[in-house]
Specification:
Layout lengths: L2 H21 L4 H17 L1 H18 L3 H7 L3 H16 L7 E6 L5 E8 L2 E6 L4 H12 L3 E5 L5 H17 L7 E3 L6 H7 L7 E5 L2 H10 L12 E5 L5 H13 L8 E7 L6 H10 L3 E4 L1 H7 L4 E3 L2 H4 L7 E7 L2 H11 L4 E5 L3 H10 L4 E4 L18 E3 L7 E3 L5 E8 L7
Parallel strand pairs: 3-4, 3-6, 4-5, 7-8, 7-12, 8-11, 9-10, 9-11, 12-13
Antiparallel strand pairs: 1-2, 2-16, 14-15
């Protein structure tokens, strides 16, 4: 790591630490006002934001950035308006900070409970999407944290413009502008410096491709909230309602392909194999390449199903490709998920109450569902209002991470002069 990168990150960290101390005491009304002002400034400065994005798009064309990344990078009036609306939506969410739960009297006379408090300084490392600058900053701000944002080099001009709007809103609201700081450099050494800033940063959240998240997980000295893969499963049990099973499987796979909560493997109980041909035809009609185990391929006969390899069961395709396996029991389905799953989202389709409850208890993933599409594994759909990402770790938060996931709890004790004897 270069000394320059270390010095830059130390300065950002020190400023963020000071800002976080103030932010943890800021009332809800002030935080909401800052977010509403940020939305108004973003709309007012839309021309400047779009001009900055045009510079990034020109550079993307010149560097040969692929079409998918260019789509994520591109801004237009509608996307900037969506960013502004997102800020207002976060302002409208309940504030978790300061809430108290489980306050109970102890035999000694004291009351003991938990209070929700901010994490502190949150470092966010992300790629391509300038909207993450607004979304992540908004969630950190509302939850009383300070944010250090390190976006991708391909979006540097866009991120600068959006971050400037946010910092101006903080000043106008009377809050510390260093509660939102952008790493204003494309030097890759600064990522390494951020990951080693344990003296200043309390948690790192990576948002991007697998290679980015693997690097963060391998190098960070700071706790990380992350998920690597979304190898999501739907299991169709023996007595599943056939129409329901078809609808859920098709939606879970084809609603959107390049998202982490899309189904990648379909498991079908051998006693529900009568669904195999219709499901395969429906997937093929939608342009999905189907790969199956030998038993499944024998059932569907002449339909165009390729051979699934061991590697397929462990692959997150993020594409119109689906692996299907026939299993002999719910135990076999659960064992398959345990062996090949990534701990993201799994769903069972069944009319058997006991089977559904077994699946809920025994499948060890961050979201486990009965009779629902895996596509529902999302902060907005779970009622969080918004999410900063999804965690497949067990500490300190699991599943979609919203405002509450950006806080922690401390014990509080209310006494009346009691002393311990």
């Amino acid at each position: 790591m270069s000394s320059d990168a270390f010095d830059i990150m130390t300065a950002l960290g020190e400023q963020a630490k000071v800002a976080a101390k103030t932010m943890r005491m800021v009332d809800t009304k002030s935080k909401n006002r800052a977010l509403q002002l940020a939305a108004a400034i973003l709309r007012r400065e839309m021309a400047e934001v779009l001009a900055a994005n045009a510079l990034d798009m020109k550079a993307a064309d010149e560097s040969g950035l692929d079409a998918a990344l260019k789509d994520r990078l591109a801004l237009d009036a509608d996307r900037v308006e969506s960013m502004a609306e997102g800020l207002e939506q976060v302002a409208a969410l309940p504030d978790p900070v300061g809430s108290v739960r489980d306050l109970v009297y102890r035999p000694s006379g004291i009351q003991v409970g938990h209070m929700r408090v901010p994490l502190g300084v949150i470092g966010i490392i992300y790629e391509s999407r300038p909207n993450v600058t607004a979304d992540a900053a908004a969630l950190c701000l509302k939850s009383g944290n300070a944010a250090i944002l390190r976006g991708g080099s391909e979006a540097i001009h866009s991120n600068r413009a959006v971050a400037a709007c946010l910092r101006r809103a903080l000043v106008d609201a009377g809050l510390p502008q260093d509660a939102v700081q952008l790493v204003d450099s494309t030097d890759r050494a600064l990522v390494g410096a951020l990951l080693k800033s344990e003296a200043y940063v309390d948690v790192i959240i990576p948002r991007g491709g697998k290679s980015l998240i693997e690097r963060v997980a391998a190098e960070s000295r700071v706790p990380v909230i992350k998920h690597l893969d979304g190898i999501c499963h739907v299991y169709i049990d023996a007595d599943a309602d056939r129409e329901m099973a078809m609808n859920i499987a098709i939606n879970a796979k084809t609603h959107r392909y390049g998202v982490c909560n899309a189904m990648e493997t379909l498991l079908i109980h051998q006693d529900a194999a009568d669904l195999a041909a219709d499901l395969t035809k429906a997937m093929l009609k939608k342009g999905v390449e189907v790969r199956g185990c030998d038993r499944f391929r024998a059932v569907v006969g002449r339909l165009d199903v390729k051979v699934a390899s061991d590697e397929d069961w462990a692959t997150e395709y993020l594409a119109p490709v689906l692996s299907i396996r026939l299993v002999g029991s719910i135990d076999e389905a659960i064992d398959h998920i345990a062996q090949y799953g990534s701990g993201h989202t799994e769903s069972i389709v069944t009319q058997d109450y006991d089977a559904g409850q077994r699946f809920l208890r025994e499948v060890d993933s961050s979201s486990v569902m009965i009779n629902a599409s895996t596509r529902f594994a999302d902060g907005f759909e779970y009622g969080l209002g918004a999410e900063i990402g999804i965690s497949t770790d067990r500490l300190h938060v699991r599943g979609p991470v919203g405002l509450e996931g950006l806080t922690t709890e401390k014990w509080i004790v209310l006494g009346h002069g009691e002393i311990r004897s």
